[in-house]
Specification:
One of its GO terms (cellular component) is cytoplasm. GO terms for molecular function: arginine-tRNA ligase activity; ATP binding. It catalyses: tRNA(Arg) + L-arginine + ATP = L-arginyl-tRNA(Arg) + AMP + diphosphate. This protein is of the alpha/beta class. Among the domains are: about 1-55, no CATH class; about 355-540, Isoleucyl-tRNA Synthetase, Domain 1 (Orthogonal Bundle). It has helices at about 5-15, 25-35, 55-70, 100-115, 135-145, 150, 155, 160-175, 175-190, 195-215, 225-230, 235-240, 275-290, 305-315, 355-380, 385-405, 420, 430-445, 450-455, 465-475, 475-485, 490-510, 520-540, and strands at about 1-5, 40-45, 50-55, 85, 120-125, 220-225, 245-250, 250-255, 265, 295-300, 330-335, 340, 415. Helix 4 links the parallel strand 4 (about 85) and strand 5. The longest helix is centred in the middle third of the chain and has 25 residues, at about 195-215. The protein is flat. The mean pLDDT is about 90.
């Protein structure tokens, strides 16, 4: 490690009659006056004044050994917040979850996992669209087609996507039906029992479909949809109005935001509420009721302007400090790019319909299983695997491949969805990393040594250059997680995980483990690498496999 403080100090003392002639001489003084420490092996000065500090092998080894004894949680970074909201996934009731929701779900879950690992209380919020104008259309269509819908329940609606399209076609083609649907929204929002009951039924069917996706991805969310915030909207708008922020404009009520040509509409000209009124109210609730210090919204980059305006309105209201003050509470919009098909266009099926996520994930598992079966059959190891192991490994590898293919990219960029690439065992893929982890587990198993005992009785040494490189990279784990949390970039963890596997490969190639005089130390380095890799997998929402 190195420090460039000498250059900064030189710019402050130059010309003040100092005894120092240049930055290098300041660097020499820093190096000479460093307090003695078991952390530092040596210090030297290079170039114009860079102070190079060599960390002690013994200290690095002890850090790793302490982690093995006390657990990876002792390497959790300390963040400046105690309580966050992560708003992610957020599909619309009665509509299909698409690949945009897949990105939001995967990225949001990983951010939540990183903060949770860092001992932050995370409120995982699913802000579902459950209170829009589409419900008048759906409910009236239900009443029209199935007058006895309460008796036949879910069978009346059947496939919700087909039901939605049929009601939308009716809405667009029949003015009388459209008028009834619009009145239906008013009756629903007015609290009529029959309409509330039908609304609840539609929401329940939709939720059960969402849950099929969440179960496969092993994602936990607490739903607080648009309808949850609806009762709070009038008091929040009253507060904003009392502060002089809401103005009348062309029959609507709006907030004018500096730097934006169009205002933020908070009450439509027909008196109805919209996304802005709901989002402002949700933000108010999260700040005042849930007491969140950092509120993170994970949506596509197309919603950046909307959230910029909502956050600006909140600052104007005095809910949030000025960003230049770098104080909490604060808000962040975590944008992400599109998922593209092999043709470079938005990812869809051949019929131009949006891809069903459940089918997409099931195909990833199916492809993973067929490749695993083929490989195990060819190498004669299929007899060592139970049906349950095959099933669990196919899920872990297949679903993990989809997640990692998304997370390894900078989230702001578009990425091309390709089963062939994501399920490849070459290069920076989840499959390659699962193999790397399984190989470490195999090395430890083949040693016939009890690693749990070794970590209590043995010691790590880092005498070989490749041992030292691996050890230094292992202890960087906490700062990597901190960087990923601070900048809300999961790809930082992916990059670290891939580099760690590459460094382990070099170490294993050049340092014999089993049967060497250094076997105990090197087995402990193997175990430490496996523990850190598993924690990275966990942060990314990927289930590690122990044999492949």
């Amino acid at each position: 490690m190195w420090s460039n403080n000498a250059m900064g100090l030189w710019s402050k003392v130059k010309g003040s009659g100092t005894i120092f002639k240049n930055p290098n001489s300041i660097g020499q003084a820093i190096a000479k006056n460093l307090p003695s420490s078991d952390i530092i092996e040596s210090a030297s000065v290079a170039g114009p004044g860079f102070v190079n500090i060599t960390l002690s092998n013994r200290w690095v080894a002890q850090r790793i050994q302490d982690m093995l004894v006390n657990g990876i949680k002792t390497w959790a970074p300390v963040l400046p917040v105690n309580r966050t909201v992560v708003d992610f996934s957020s599909p619309n009731i009665a509509k299909e979850m698409h690949v945009g929701h897949l990105r939001s779900t995967i990225i949001g879950d990983t951010l939540a996992r990183m903060f949770e690992f860092s001992n932050v209380v995370v409120l995982r919020r699913n802000h579902v669209g459950d209170w829009g104008t589409q419900f008048g259309m759906l409910i009236e269509y239900l009443f029209e087609k199935f007058p006895n819908w309460q008796e036949i329940g879910c069978q009346a609606i059947g496939d919700l996507q087909i039901f939605y399209k049929a009601s939308k076609h009716r809405f667009d083609s029949d003015p009388d039906f459209k008028a009834r649907a619009q009145q239906g929204v008013v009756r629903l929002q007015g609290g009529e029992d029959k309409y509330r009951e039908a609304w609840k039924k539609i929401c329940d069917i939709s939720r059960s479909e969402f849950d099929l996706v969440y179960k496969r991805l092993n994602v936990v969310l607490e739903e607080k949809g648009e309808s949850f915030y609806n009762p709070y909207i009038p008091q929040v708008l009253e507060e904003l109005s009392n502060k002089g922020l809401i103005k009348e404009s062309e029959g609507a009520r709006v907030i004018f935001i500096q730097g934006h040509q169009i205002p933020l509409i908070v009450v439509k000209s027909d008196g109805g509420f919209n996304y802005a009124s709901t989002d402002l109210t949700a933000l108010w609730y999260r700040l005042n009721v849930e007491q969140a210090e950092w509120i993170i919204y994970v949506t596509d980059v197309g919603q950046q302007q909307h959230f910029d305006m909502v956050f600006s309105a909140a600052k104007m209201a005095g809910w949030l400090p000025d960003p230049s003050e770098k104080k909490f509470p604060k808000t962040s919009h975590v944008g992400f790019g599109l998922v593209l098909g092999s043709d470079g266009k938005r990812f869809r099926t051949r019929s131009t319909e949006v891809v069903r996520l459940v089918e997409l994930l099931d195909e990833a598992k199916s492809r993973s299983k067929s490749e695993l079966l083929q490989r195990l059959t060819e190498n004669g190891k299929i007899v060592d695997w139970t049906d349950e192991e095959l099933e669990q490994t196919s899920e872990a590898v297949g679903y993990g491949a989809v997640k990692y293919a998304d997370l390894k990219n900078n989230r702001l960029t578009n990425y091309t969805f390709s089963f062939e690439q994501m399920l490849s065992d070459k290069g920076n893929t989840a499959v390659y990393l699962q193999y790397a982890h399984a190989r470490i587990c195999s090395i430890i198993r083949k040693s016939n040594k009890n690693v749990e005992e070794l970590k209590m009785s043995g010691a790590i040494s880092l005498d070989h250059p490749d041992e030292r490189v691996l050890g230094l990279y292992l202890i960087r784990f906490a700062e990597v997680v901190e960087e990923a949390c601070t900048n809300l970039l999961p790809n930082v963890v992916c990059e670290y995980l891939y580099n760690l596997s590459e460094m382990f490969t070099k170490f294993y190639t050049n340092c014999q483990v089993v049967g060497s005089p250094e076997e105990t130390s090197r087995l402990l380095l193997c175990q430490a690498t496996a523990v850190v890799m598993r924690q990275c997998f966990n942060l990314l929402g990927i289930t590690p496999v122990y044999k492949l």
